[in-house]
Design a protein that fits this description.
mainly alpha, 3 helices, 0% strand
Length: 83
Amino acid sequence: MSDSQSRPTDRGSDPPSLWSNSPYRIFLASQTLSSLGDSFSYVALPLLVLHSTGSVLQMGFVTGLTGVASIVSGLFAGLIADR
């Protein structure tokens, strides 16, 4: 292999940064806020049940149902997205 074949070709300038892409920044900010909101709801809903009922058992039941619903909906969403 000659030296000219192993050298990468010069493509001009570097690709633009993602931070200069306004739609990407909006998408990243919205996804970050959505994930943060989901995290708050995973904590707040069981605490609301505990505060309103005083039952740790019901709080655990709500926490478990939230986790199961997330897993099941994720599986079906994956099947739909793969089509």
